[in-house]
Amino acid sequence: MRPLMLQGHSRAITQIKYNREGDLIFSAAKDASPCLWYSHNGERLGTFDGHNGTVWCIDIDWKTQQFLSGGGDMTIRLWDCETGKELNQLDRDSPVRTSLFSYSGNMVVYSTDAAMSKPCEIFLADVRDPDQLGESVTRITVEGPKVTALLWGPLDHTLITGHESGKLTQWDLRTNKIITTVEDHQATINDMQASKDGTMFITASKDHTSKLFDMDTLECLKTYKTERPVNSGCISPNLEHVCLGGGQEAMEVTTTATSQGKFEARFFHLVFEEEFARVKGHFGPINSLGFHPGGTQYASGAEDGYLRVHNFDQSYFDYKYDFYM
Amino acid sequence: MVSLSRWADEIDDDDFIDDQPVAKENLIPGKQDFLRPKEGERIVTEVKTDPESGKRYQIHRTFRLEKKLLSKGVIDRKTRWSKFGASKRDAPGPNSATTVVADEVLMQFLNAKNADESGMDDANNPFAKLQQEGKGFVKCRYCHDNHFSAKCPYKDVAGLSEISSVVNRNAQMGDDDIKKVDSDAKPGVFLPPALRGGNRRGELMSSGNQRKDEATIRVSNLPESMSETDMQELCSPFGKIDRIFLAKDRSTGVCKGFAFVTYQNRETAARALRSLNGYGYDHLILNVEWSKPANN
């Protein structure tokens, strides 16, 4: 396959996301302007200009009308997808680490870092009217390690947070109380992505593993082991595959050869937990991965500042995993 | 594709070029040849003038038309949305400054499991089968036995010309004698030449090299920037050199600070040792001693 290489960012990519139909890719980096791309030809549609620092987290609503971004400049911003205009912006006391639209697109949730003697907090707001972004419906102060990854549970009733210590917590949004906490991971959860039907999700952790959890019970279903920190993982929407990306710590990259860096995207079988394919290309660790909702394409954003969009060859679809009953 | 001049076929037919913005009189005559679009293709023609040479040339681009069913939202976003932000001034279509088609990469499938399984076991190996059945279709050149010549246990015993006599002799000798001749050579096991004739692993093949050992000096405390040519210059005034080994880091190529120099005889080596030991070279004082044979 010949990947499209998108060079819209001047610094390391932090997060990439497809919209629901998969025709657009949104990307954020440690520079201040998230980008919007057409996924089929890599054409850049625009940039969302306004942030004053690293953009850590982005999300798109169900209808691809609004775009949410939060960053190191301690703001959370709501944008219009079509025009790139800022609809609202809100200052917080510490950097915004994670942000998500709910499935309906009516609510947003975002979390802030525990920094500058401010605690880590989770905010919920109703954004049917963008002006209401500041009127938080719920505000939860998180005790202990800060939130590094976030997901909505089924029907937006619950919230699942991944923490710096590796623990996963499920929150009841009606009472704002913790339902379950599991500690399957030993180090920071870098990323969490739900499967297409939302029944399970995959975590990516610094403890060199990625795990598959049941969305409802937080039961660990599968473990995918690698020999390096995993930065991002995603589940194929139509095949029993997961894709993991990672590599060594960003600070160690300059001191090792590219060939040793292990910057490939790695494909594992969802059920058998066994790696079956790799795709090379980046010369920095992959920070974020996304599967096209149709399963025909995947995109990766890395520490090298590039986004690579891969359309799968027929050989990928022809590949049959051998197993014996 | 820049069209080539085709003198033979001057076809002038508008049907070949569809809805092109180029007026017909601007087209270069005779350059529309063979451009008959296939089913589901469209050819777009463009005429350009090179500003330097003033040459006009015509570019035909062939597009394959694909039909896709898309949701209304996707069509809306593809057709109606205009570019904004840093891309506001970009022309329609991908901008080569931000979008590049990267080099071909292949998905590497890891099927180590399959590779193991494909190795033939004895039951499937036709040669092994034949051997088991005792059919003499493989015949050794040396001893005429039922195996390949390369696997013959006697092949190193004597020169090729003496084959038959050796075989005969061995046939007369007892088993113990054969073992003595080639103690390590088990039938069918390859022995590197260095290990033949009772040499142990790590030992040098011939005693000739051991003789050279005594004309070898070890020079240490060399600067990091030392190269083989520098070493040559440093050591050659004392006599003829057989071999210089400069220890270097395998990955960086930087000198590790020591070298072995083998002279042709021990006297010149001794002379070099006397002169170079304590010699100041590139702000370092060299240390030279006789090289010690590697202890096994």
Automatic annotation (TrEMBL), chain A:
Matches recorded under InterPro entries: eIF3i, WD40/YVTN_repeat-like_dom_sf, WD40_repeat_dom_sf, WD40_rpt
Record Pfam families: EIF3I
Principal location class: cytoplasm
Keywords of the record: Cytoplasm, Initiation factor, Protein biosynthesis, Repeat, WD repeat
SUPFAM superfamilies referenced in this protein's UniProt entry, alphabetically: WD40 repeat-like
WD repeat windows: 6-47, 48-89, 140-181, 182-223, 279-309
Top-level taxon: Eukaryota
SMART domains membership: WD40 (SM00320)
PROSITE patterns: WD_REPEATS_2, WD_REPEATS_REGION
Compartments, record wording: Cytoplasm
Chain's role: Component of the eukaryotic translation initiation factor 3 (eIF-3) complex, which is involved in protein synthesis of a specialized repertoire of mRNAs and, together with other initiation factors, stimulates binding of mRNA and methionyl-tRNAi to the 40S ribosome. The eIF-3 complex specifically targets and initiates translation of a subset of mRNAs involved in cell proliferation.
Protein family according to the UniProt entry: Belongs to the eIF-3 subunit I family.
PANTHER family for this protein: EUKARYOTIC TRANSLATION INITIATION FACTOR 3 SUBUNIT I
Subunit and partners: Component of the eukaryotic translation initiation factor 3 (eIF-3) complex.
HAMAP family (UniProt xref): eIF3i
Name recorded for this polypeptide: Eukaryotic translation initiation factor 3 subunit I
Organismal lineage: Eukaryota, Metazoa, Ecdysozoa, Arthropoda, Hexapoda
UniProtKB/TrEMBL annotation, chain B:
Keyword Ion transport: no
This protein's UniProt keywords: Cytoplasm, Initiation factor, Protein biosynthesis, RNA-binding
CDD domains documented for this protein: eIF3G (cd12933), RRM_eIF3G_like (cd12408)
Record-annotated RRM domain positions: 215-293
Protein's UniProt keywords contain Ligase: no
One family name in Pfam for this protein: eIF3g
Subcellular location: Cytoplasm
SMART domains to which the protein is assigned, alphabetical: RRM
PANTHER family: EUKARYOTIC TRANSLATION INITIATION FACTOR 3 SUBUNIT G
Family the entry assigns: Belongs to the eIF-3 subunit G family.
Subunit note: Component of the eukaryotic translation initiation factor 3 (eIF-3) complex.
Name used for this protein in its record: Eukaryotic translation initiation factor 3 subunit G
Organism lineage string: Eukaryota, Metazoa, Ecdysozoa, Arthropoda, Hexapoda
